[in-house]
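Help needed: design a sequence for this.
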């Protein structure tokens, strides 16, 4: 009896993971646009499983801020709050600076963590070369979280990780401005960060973090300005 229950729980868990990973990928890639409905019955039919693992997957997506449950209990893909982007960018830039500075103060004495940062960078390079936007988003997130972890402040690390998670779709827009062909310049910026952190140059690490954040913000702002201008110019 217990063995059967464990088997059932394991099957449900793998089903939940499959639904979660598939929907998460589709949301982050914008294949599922903000506001798209996520009906449990239809999702159950699509994945060929009961509603329980689907519901659990939606709860996990909700915890990442990717889906929203409305008062009528319907679930939709969360909207991107473009009006609040200036505040988001301010917080993101601050965390780039704090975590990169913190890492530089420890980089020369932590070879194991530097190896992890370099491994994340290798993943990022492979994703860039493959023009795989989803993999770029994941590798970029892990790269910067590894830098934050080297800094040693768990509060900063958790907050930065949350900001990066909340900004995944914004980063997807950023990569789309290059048609997913990210210029080598941005790979090189990561490389320079690694070198500077390893050398323990805190002030240079700060300058690199500011510049890195600024070009991301500028590129996204330019993209949104073009999209807004195009929408306004469309004939009624």
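Sure. Designed sequence:
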């Amino acid at each position: 009896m217990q063995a059967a229950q464990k088997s059932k729980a394991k099957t449900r868990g793998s089903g939940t993971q499959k639904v979660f990973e598939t929907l998460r990928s589709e949301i982050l890639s914008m294949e599922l646009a903000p506001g798209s409905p996520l009906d449990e019955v239809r999702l159950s039919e699509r994945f060929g499983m009961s509603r329980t693992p689907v519901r659990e997957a939606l709860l996990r997506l909700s915890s990442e801020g990717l889906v929203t449950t409305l008062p009528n209990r319907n679930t939709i893909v969360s909207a991107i709050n473009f009006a609040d982007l200036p505040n988001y960018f301010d917080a993101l830039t601050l965390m780039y600076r704090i975590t990169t500075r913190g890492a530089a103060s420890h980089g020369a004495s932590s070879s194991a963590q530097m190896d992890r940062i370099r491994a994340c960078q290798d993943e990022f390079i492979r994703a860039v070369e493959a023009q795989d936007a989803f993999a770029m988003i994941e590798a970029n997130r892990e790269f910067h979280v590894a830098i934050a972890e080297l800094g040693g402040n768990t509060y900063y690390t958790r907050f930065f990780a949350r900001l990066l998670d909340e900004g995944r779709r914004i980063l997807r827009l950023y990569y789309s401005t290059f048609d997913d062909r990210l210029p080598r310049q941005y790979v090189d910026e990561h490389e320079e960060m690694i070198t500077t952190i390893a050398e323990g140059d805190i002030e240079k690490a700060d300058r690199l973090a500011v510049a890195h954040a600024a070009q991301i913000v500028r590129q996204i702002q330019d993209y949104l300005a073009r999209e807004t201008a195009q929408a306004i110019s469309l004939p009624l």
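The CA atoms of residues 121 and 174 lie 18 Å apart.
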